[in-house]
Amino acid sequence: MSARAETLQLRLELLKVRAELERAELRAALAEVRRATAGARRAASIASRIGEAVVAGGGGLAPLLGTVAGH
Fold first, then answer.
1. Half-sphere exposure of residue 53, counting CA atoms within 13 Å on the CB side?
2. Percent of residues in the chain assigned helix, strand, coil, to nearest 5
3. pTM of the predicted protein model
4. Contact assessment for residue 44 and residue 38, using Cβ atoms and an 8 Å cutoff
C-alpha cells in the first residue's frame, strides 16, 4: 500500500470514529431532552385527549366542564 493510500485509509478511519462519537453524543443529548420534557409531553397528551373528548361531543365530560366553569 502506498503512503498516500495508507494516509487516506487512516483519514477514513478517523472520520468513522468521529462520526460514531457524534452519534453517541447526539443520542445522549436526545435522551436528556426526553427526560427533561417528559412532564410537559404528558400534560400535552392529556390536554389533547380532553380536547378530543370535547370535540367528540363531551358525553360525560359536559357536567364536569360545567362544574369547572361555574355553570
1. 14
2. 85, 0, 15
3. 0.55
4. no
Q: Write the pLDDT tens digit of every residue in 21-50.
A: 999 999 999 999 999 999 898 888 888 888
Phi, then psi, of 58 in degrees rounded to 5: 80, -50
The answer to whether the CB of 53 falls within 8 A of the CB of 59 is yes
Q: What crossing angle do the helices spanning 3-36 and 38-55 adopt, rounded to 10°?
A: 60
Distance of alpha carbon 66 from alpha carbon 71, whole angstroms: 5
Cell 453524543 locates to 25
Contact (CB, 8 A) for 1 and 9: yes
* DSSP-assigned letter for residue 32: H
What is d(CA 58, CA 67) in angstroms, rounded to the nearest whole number? 14
